Amino acid sequence: MTAPYYRDTWVEVDLDAIESNVKNMRTYLPKNTQLMAVVKANGYGHGAVEVAETALGTGADWLAVAFLDEAIELRLAGIEAPILVLGRVRPEDVPIAARYHISLTVYQTEWLEQAMNFYQKNDPVFLHVKLDTGMGRLGIRDEESLSRFVRKLKEDSRFVLEGAYTHFATADEEDESYFEEQYKRFQTALSWLKSDGVNPNIIHCGNSAASLKHPEKMFNLVRFGISMYGLSPSPSMKHKLPFQLKEAFSLYSRLTHVKKVEPDEAISYGATYRTAGYEWIGTAGIGYADGWHRRLQEQHNQVIVNGERCPVIGRICMDQLMCRLKSEVPAGTKITLIGTDKNECITIDEIAEQLGTINYEIPCMINERVPRIYLKNKEIIKIKNPLIKGMRL
Ligand SMILES: *Cc1c(COP(=O)(O)O)cnc(C)c1O
Predict the structure, then answer these.
(1) What pLDDT score does 1 carry?
(2) Which of 23, 269, 278, 326 is catalytic?
(3) In which residue ranges of the chain is pLDDT below 50?
(4) Is 141 annotated as a binding residue?
(5) Which end of the chain, N or C, is less surrounded by CB atoms within 10 Å?
(6) C-alpha dihedral over 106, 42, 297, 353, to 10 degrees?
(7) Beta strand 302-305 with 308-313: parallel, antiparallel or unpaired?
(8) CATH 3.30.450.180 holds for 15-229
(9) Does the domain formed by 249-388 have CATH 2.40.37.10?
């Protein structure tokens, strides 16, 4: 299943890298710990369906997404594995979730009450209760609220408590004291559940960071996100990883115009860049509207051309940018914005640092204008171009 694309800017997603990261994680985790592949936000920009299928084919047991639409996308693609929605789903949408066999996160008795009222069928609704142990985002925080929740739950047997979980705020940091604190609170909250007479089958707390650091403490499931894509959860963990992560995402374009420019000539909007002498200037068809943030230019962003780094110069435009070449190259020459070309490599971490953000944000910010090309064993197995999805050739 391949689609055409008519622009010379593309993302390559190396599914072998994802496979390798999932496989290594599987081997690293205790045998009875399940792996939930987190594919929210279109698989962190890589493609939710493609990553999900690859992860499931490599031994992932579960999938996780942020909201219901993302879960339904996976179902419509024919994926039958269990899926957990990590965020809130409207109580009135519970029938849809049940119809598609999607497990939901619950963290309020009021929500459960409303869901029970809206739901008219008899098929079970599977729930994971979220416990807030210090992230301060979603979750039940105290014993009284949890008891009230359990009492409500017991009124309606169609609502099945399948799991209980929490989320860590600092698992990627070197100082583990807050992580330990949250872990203890989670154990306490689980004991409250137990004394209220409920024992969910699936207990989980770990994101990539926590599961890489403490595989033995992760109860019976981990939520594996960022490191499945080959990225370290934080710079401080990068050099202490238990196995080698392989980055799956690269970004390329091609030069659309190459020219020799006279000394002291201006390049791009605002005429902020002036050539020092005669310079070879390349134009490429990628810009901030693709997600290549305009602020990158001020941060000395570079691209790789024929294995050599070249500075991006002048302002990044909506659909184009300019770079200063070492020497003349033909128009059509490939440029690498993220990835490896010969002996040079630009990592997602490098771009994240330039933008003063975390690596998570970088593949997410490259949007649907940029087609995704999927590689397996170095062969293209699929091209996804949402812009012209329905086009017939
Ligand atoms: C996104 C998310 C994860 C995955 O975290 P990574 O750091 O990417 O591994 C796990 N749990 C929850 C609740 C999340 O929202």
Answers:
(1) 53
(2) 269
(3) none
(4) no
(5) C
(6) 50
(7) antiparallel
(8) no
(9) yes
